[in-house]
Please model this.
Amino acid sequence: MKKMKVVEIFRTVEGEGSWVGYPVSFIRLEGCNLRCPWCDTPYSYDGKTYKEMSLEEIFLEIEKFGLKRLCITGGEPFLTEELPSLVEMFLKHGYKVLIETNGTLWNEKIKEIFNENLFIVCSPKPPTYLINENLVPFISELKYVIDDFIKIQDIYKPDILERVKNKTIILQPESNLPERVEKALQIQDELLKKGIESKIIPQCHKVLGLP
Ligand code: SF4
Model:
């Protein structure tokens, strides 16, 4: 099997979304099909900050951390063709695996290995906030960065929300800025008026000074 482009492998405390606070191993895969203005990992798609690793090499690195929660992030992990094989290997070894995706791409092979230990967190990105139709039924939670521009219409899409597995929506104030927290509170209220609960969760790893 082809080697994968891996930007970094590390252990930290999950700082975003529903897994917040758990110790987690991270694999950051190379490449992204988007260019978000506030991206905090531009090195993940600069085309030079990576090393090529086989499945076995990645597995041995992750096993060293002794954890059973793994987050596969990017960049955009669905750009890596071998993503399903990577996920399958860890699921088979009893890991809970979370894929963080911008939601624009999909790989049909994920369907074949999908089970209750695989979590797909979709964080749609501006300006379109596009979500790939094939991905929708497999999304565990939706996470929106609350910046200066996002509007309630970018989040409130009933046809999509109905099909998201546990209907969790997370509002993440950009860079933990006070004015973004204020906007997140407003959006949370607007969603509530439409009968939709959401959680405001900051980037906790940044608060804690962790990677
Ligand atoms: S999708 Fe994620 S990795 Fe890609 S540019 Fe946007 S924030 Fe950065």
Observations:
- Residues 2 and 54 are 7 Å apart (CA to CA).
- Helices lie at 55-63, 83-92, 109-113, 152-155, 158-161, 178-193, 204-208.
